[in-house]
Each structure stands twice: as structure tokens, then as C-alpha cells.
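Researcher: Quick one. three chains, 1002 residues in total.
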Amino acid sequence: MTEQAADNRDNVLSLEDIRVTFGSGPTENKAVDGVSLNIERGKTLGLVGESGCGKSTLARAAIRTQPIDSGRILLDGQDFGNLKGDALRRARRGIQMVFQDPYSSLNPRMAVCDIVADPLRNNSDLTRDEISAKVAILLDQVGLPPRALNAYPHELSGGQRQRVGIARALALDPALVICDEAISALDVSIQAQIINLLQELQDEFKLTYLFIAHDIAVVRHFSDRIAVMYLGKVVEEGPALELCARPQHPYTQSLISAVPVPDPRLERERRAKASVLKGDISIKADRGCRFAPRCQMRKIVKRESGIECAEVEPDRVEVGANQYSRCHLVALEQKIAG
Amino acid sequence: MNSIKMASTSSVRPIRSAQRILDFLNHFSRDKFATAALVIFSALVLSSVFADLVAPHDPLKQDLLNRLKPPVWVEGGSWTYVLGTDLLGRDILSRCIHGGRMSLGIGAAVIAMGGVFGSLMGLLSGYLGGRFDAILMRYIDFQISIPYFLLALTIMAAIGPGTLNLIIVLSIGSWPLFARYARSIMMSLRNQVFIEAARVAGGKEVAIMTRHVLPNILSPLITLTTLELSRIVLTEASLSYLGMGVRPPTPAWGLMVQEAHDYLMIANWAVTTPGVFIMITTLSINIFATRLRISTDPLQRGKH
Amino acid sequence: MAEPEISSAGSGSEANGAERPLLSVRDLNVEFTVGESTVHAVNGLSLDLRKGETLAIVGESGSGKSVSMLSVLGLIPQPPGKITNGHVFYDDKDLLSLPSGELRKIRGKEISMIFQDPMTSLNPTMTIGRQITEMLELHLDMKPSQAKERAIELLDLVEIPDPSTRFGQYSIEFSGGMRQRVMIAIALSCNPKILIADEPTTALDVTIQMQIIQVVNELRAEMDMSVIWITHDLGVVAGLADRVIVMYGGRAVEIADSEDLFYRPQHPYSIGLLNSVPSIAEPVSERLIAIEGLPPDLSERRDGCAFYPRCALASDICKNNTPRLEAKGTGGQAACFASPGDVARLTEGSAAQQDNASAQ
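Model:
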């Protein structure tokens, strides 16, 4: 765990070398393959990657709804990964989640007041009236009209449903909220509302976020740090703006250049410059750099250093202030530079 | 697009369950067919329960002088025997009312045994999965592959006819259906995101079961139960007709058909009347069940 | 309410306005009956597609963008859907009054469509190759051997590696991006004049989205096609479209050349939409400028501008009168009563707000 040694900041959540494997034999899928991450109190860590990269599995591992093969999970510095039963339930008050699908994550047979009250009923000794009062406050905080109290999920719009999901996540005053693609199912004009709401709530309650999304432009807007995942590995991690301005890993570079920009002239320039990343995430590799089969740079690495990217796993190297990358080419450049 | 308008109502209180029940009834009664079905079915249930008070005659009392009397609307009929008499001169209306007590009573007993047992096994199977699930499902596959009447007749032949034995046989035939259905609902629910969300919200397994799983299972199971009830009434009638069910002279719909079918040509009412009772019962249950499923589901309720 | 749109959309004062459009939609109205209520999904849409251009239709869910194009091809289920009014002119024919047999001949052969979900658009029990050759044999009367050759060519055209092996495989063996390429190959199999792409990249990852956009763009030039690209993503539009139609509440609220729309938007909704998406190329602002409120409920028929309840420039006139598309002096057309000065101030205002925020 040398990566963590220098990190003695106030971390709400620490994940150390988390591994999750689905299936076995020829269909084995290392969904999360040795991921270590820290999330500082009051900050937002953005986790980006394409579908199938393991980001949602990592989130479920962190919140302990997905069993892990190995690794440590620390919540507020305390062991969270090995808790069981009531101890796990109590500790989970501190880590809550807003789910991707505002349709399936709300029980269709429960009215909004019962959905939001659910965590309170589970975890506190509040009376019925106190719970009602708290629910009313929560709904107000997430910008829902009082009428929504008695509505069923299907009577609400997508954005309103997601507000209910946020109210439920906030009910227990958690330190950390995991937003797993929380806005990707929403309409464009509603996404901005929800992003703003999440930011306002963060300011007001000093929340810490793990913000998972596939849209790196949104993640950049929202996060203090960004971690980029590819096939179960964090390939690059750094301060949000620096990472987007100076991506070092070839995958991060492709990801950023593939994001369309709402500006025709700029977009035309970018398209002219950028080369389109070939292939897709279904090209699996189980050793070496996971990105190697799609990477244009592996020939250069082979020529300059003789390293076969697809065979040798790259180390994590510091490429800037608090920015880390896992790439042979980046390591090579650093060696040459000094 | 569904959406709640931004209304500035000052204090909205959560609606309590009494109001929810009213909402349900209100929605249910909007369907005239279903309401009629409910009324008919209720009348059948009530007349069965209070058969001794409702029936104009003793169902077992023979009146050989008045045997095979036609119903009142046919020539030769009289108001004394509104629906006519059978070959032993027993009042068909009274026998049908008491027969309803028998048929519906057996149905209720089978639901209580086979339905409850099957549902519990199915839920457990869906929840636990693994070996329990595998063994149970293989057994059910095996049982279902045996023609039901063959199975029923074999058992009845072995343990002898009679009401209690009939209930046992019908329960044996019924529980696999409940188990399979309950299992499939459980399986699809188990992987729902809102169940995961309930777990994240700190729900104990018991609370998740009662508060999140059960309400989602209850309404489809109630629907299955009502539909099964009509099937059980039919099966009971068939078994009684074959002489393997209720024993004479106890009135039961199927048995009445069997007793009278030799006289079909000269006294068709003795056959058709209990048949019509069977039909009305199953039809009203089916219509009622369909509406029940819609009215107990808030999502469906919005659409219909 | 369905007053005919006299100012024919798009054929403004520009030079190529004289050329006859390839496809003209006039005053299209589409309704859906849901239970007891009627949803007015498209309300008087008119648009022109020129030869060789890429026209983007931008809107959120429920804006009518997909429904209108499905109606053009007679693909909305009727009932519950119903085209209550309108014409679609293509090749001197009104597609909406054609018998379904003739429309079927045009559909797939001259006007093709690809959809959002490549997972369900392909038949899982038929090989990929067979699904393409079927189209060729049906529409172009090709012989099986000829069709196979052409199908492999098409797979190659959409840059599927090793096309002759892929020809004999089933859709389950293809990834999402590859399936969408297959869909494109099928759509292009009869050399259509028009390709309607309904959010074809929404279900795909960004790197795959880029590949698909590139393939369609190259093929458009190569095959001399016109493309209608339906999307909710303004970023995708910027790199792709010649002209853009912004839809809201079943109506076109702005029609403009791509650059005009992005640099000089004329409708408050377009301005709001542009502001509400964070761009990776711009400084990060403290808060996004969101469009408050909810999308319109189209089952309520009411007068006035559909955007009125959410609009920063709303005034009394907007409440009871429905604005029509009219030229705004920037080359584009917008359906808005607000004065150009107010619109400009809104654009500048939000730009300033954004600058302020990012300066903090």
C-alpha cells in the first residue's frame, strides 16, 4: 500500500486494493481489479469510465451491497469492509447512495413520504410525527412541492423522482453520498437542475461525494478530483481541471477528445486534430496494460524501451501535482525527462 | 409526462392507510363489470355461509311425488320449487345453495392449505436459491408432468372418497402453481434496485421483507389466489362428477350434475342449473380478480 | 390551433432556398390517446431537408422529435397514435396519403432509419449477413450470391473488421458499437437518399459515439445522402449538423444554421439549453445555469407558448398567444415574441453570469 503512505489527509472513505471477480474459468470477469482510492472530506471524487469498466461495481463494493474478493474499506478511518449484521447497518448511516435509474430505485407501491421515511424508520427512535416533520423538511430541501408527499413514484417526472432518491439518501445525514450515474437518465435541462441541487446540498451539509458518471464534461464540472477507470483498473487520477487539461494516459486523452463540445468551430478543430479511438471495451486483456489492445502508443513503447504493453503491467507514476497515471509511455517520458 | 405541479399547499399530511383503502375501493368501483362480479360473488358467498337461512327447503328432503318438477318458467313448474326438483324430488335451488357452501368451502380450505404452503415454499425458494430451489423446482416439474386427474384419482382411490380427502388431493394439485408463481415474483424482486436501496437505507432483512417485498408480492398473489379458486371449484366439480369427490347425498355442484346427467333428455334443468352456478361463480371470480390486480397496483391504477 | 405555417421553414432568403428540398414536412400534427387523455405530441411542425445536408433535430424527451420522424415514415402505431393533420412531400408524393404498400417500398429503400437501441433492433435468431441480404433481395431484387457480395462490402464500408467472417455471425456476438454499425449497414444497403438517425449514439460510450458519427459523416459524403440526426446532445450536433431544428413541446421553436444556433441563439429555450450543459472546453463555473421548472404536460391543451412557464423573457402576450416561427435577422428563425434586444441581453447576461461564476 505504498500509494497510500503519503496520504494522511482527512479521508471519509478509503478503498485499498479492492478486487471483485464475477464468474470463473473462461467467463471470469475481473470487474474491479485492485483499485485504491481516497475521498477527502467535503470534496468530490469523480469516477469516469465507459460502461463495463467496473465503476458501478466499485460503488456497490464501497457501500457493501456487492461482496468483495479482497481489499480494505475504511469509512471515517474505521473498518467498514468487514462489518456484518447490525454493525454494518449502523455504519451504513454514514454512506448513502443515489441510484442511476430514478424509476426502478423507488418502490412502486410506496408513496414518496414512506420512501423518504424508510431510512429514518430503520435507523432512529424518532416518533411518527418527528419522522413526518423531518420528511417534510427533506422534501423541501431537495425542491419538491409538499404535494409530492403522497404521490407515488409513477406520478412524478424523472427529475422529481431523482429528487426523492436524493432526499432518501440525505435522510440519515450521511458523510458520504455515492451518486452512481445519478443524472444520466435525466433530460438535459433537468440534469443541470439536479447537478446544481447536489452542489447546493454539498455546500449546506458539507457532504462528500463519490460522483460516478460516463460523461467526463459533467464530472469535470462537478468534481475536485477525477479517477479514470478502464476494465477494472484506475488508469489515471488527479485534480479535476489539471487532469482534463493535461491528460497523460492515452485512454484519458481519447476519452476527453471524444467528448463532443457544443461549439461548432471548436468542435471542427478538435475533430481535425483528434484521432478516433478504435475498437471497444469488449477487447479484454487479463494481463499487462488493460488498454494495450486499443492503444496506438504501444508500438512506440515497444520501440523505445522494448516493453510489451500487453504483457507487463505498468506502475503508477506521479505525473504532476497529485496526478497519477498507469502507463509505460508516461513512465518512459518521465525517465527521459529526468 | 406525469408530473406533480408545483402547488403551494401549505401543510400536506401523509395519507394514512384508511385513505389508501378508500382510494382502492373508489378505483375498483369505477368498473361496472367488476363491481357486478363482486356483488354476485359476495351474494354467493353470503348465501353459502347462511345457507340454512336462505334455502327455501331442506336440501336432503326427498319428495318423490314431486320428482323432476321443472322450474317455474317452464310449463308445469311451480313457485314451491323455483328451480325445479331432481329425480328424488329434492329442491334444486336449495341444493345449489348448500352445494355452494360445499364448493366454496372446499375452495377456501384448499387455498388455506395448498395456497399458503405453495406460496411460502415459492418465496423461500426464490429468496434462498441454491440447492433448496433446485430440488423444489425439480420435484414440481416431476409432479406437474403427471396428468392431474390420474394423480387425483389414484390418491382418491387409495385413501377413499370424502370431503377431507378431496381437500387434501386438491391442495396437492394446487401448491406447485403457487410455488412456481411466488418464486418467479420473488426472483424478479430480489434483483430490483429499490430492494438494494432499502438495504442501503439500513433496513433489516425482516423490515425489507415486510415493507418492500411483501406489498409487491401480495397483489399478484391475491390475483392468483382468486383465479385458482375458480379452478379449484371446477376441479372439485369434476372430481365429484367422477364420483371421487363429495359423497352423496351431500349436495355439491359437480355431484349434482353427475346425479342428473342420465336424465338430461327429460329434465335438463337438473343438470344445467348446478352447471350455471359453477359458471357464474368462476366467471365472477375471474372478472373480479382482473380488476383487483389493477386496483391494488398504484402504477396500473393510474392507467385505467 | 393548427394554423398552417406559411413561412416555409428554412427556405428563407439564402441562395440555396431556390433549390427544391428533398423532403418537406408541412404542418404535421400527431396525437396519442393515453387512457382518457390525449397527448399532443407534435403540433404543427414544418421543416425542409435539403439535398446533401445534415439536419439535426434537437429536443428533450417528449419534445416530439422522434415521433415526428416516425410519423413521416408511417411508423407510429395507430392507435394509440394518430396523425391529425399535415403533409410530408417527398419526390412529388405526399407520404402521409400513400397506401401503406407504396410507403413500405420507399421506407428502407429511399428513406432509411436507424434507432437508439441496437440491442433490440436486430433479430437475434438470424445471422447478421442474412439480415442485410434480405433487404437487398427484397428491395433491389438481387440474387443471393450477388446480395452476399454486396452485404460483405457494406460491412466493410461501416468499418467492421473481418467482414466475411462477421457475415455469418449472430448479433449476440457483436458489441453495442458493432451492432449499431450493422444497423447502419442495413439502413444503407439500398443506397437511400435520406437516412434518419434517431439518437443512434445515446446508448453508446463516447469513444464509440465518435466512431459512429465519423462513419455516418464519411458515408454521407460518399453516398450523397441527406441525414436527419435526432438527438438531445448539443455537443453531437455541433460537430455534425449543417442546420439545426430545436423542438420543444411538440413544436419547432428555432431553426437555424449550426453556427447561428450556437453563437447567436434566438429562442430563450435554445439559450437555456446551451447554458445548461457543461463543456469540457470551457472554464468551470460555480453553478450551471439551469432551466428551472418542468417540461410541458402535453396532455393539457392550452394556448400560449409551451416554454412560457419556464422562460426568463416571458410576458403577458406569451401566455395566450402561440408564437410562430419568423426570421430573426440572424439568418435563422425562432418562435418567440421577445424583442431581439431582450434575447441578446439574455444571451449576454447568462454569459456574464457564467464568467462571473468562473472568476470567483
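The radius of gyration of chain B is 24 Å.
Researcher: Thanks, that's what I needed.
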